Amino acid sequence: MITRARAAMAAIEDWSQDDLDRLAQAIAWYAGNEKTFTRLAHQGVDESGIGDREGRPAK
């Protein structure tokens, strides 16, 4: 995951602040969707092995 995160950071290191703001807004809109948020919460538990998979979205 660290390698993927570093690659993602490198891909956007020259972006303008306006582009980064739009990216942050797009991520927030995407993650704010209940179905997507639940999938991301489950993925976090699955990848880390920490926490309760079914209880995580309610936190």
Notes on the structure:
With 59 residues, this protein is mostly helical. Helix content is 71%, strand content 0%. It has helices at 2-12, 17-32, 34-48. The protein is flat, with a radius of gyration of 14 Å. The two termini are 23 Å apart. 0% of the residues are buried. The mean pLDDT is 87.
Keywords:
flat; mainly alpha; 71% helix; 59 residues
Write the layout of secondary structure elements.
Layout: H1 2-12, H2 17-32, H3 34-48
| Uncertain spans | none
Structural class: mainly alpha
Largest sheet: none
Number of strands: 0
Helix share of residues? over 70%
The share of residues in extended strands comes to under 5%
Chain-averaged pLDDT: 87
Radius of gyration, taken over Cα atoms and rounded to an integer in Å: 14 Å
Query: How far from one another are the termini?
Result: 23 Å
Looking at the structure, what is the overall shape? flat
Q: Please report the number of helical segments.
A: 3
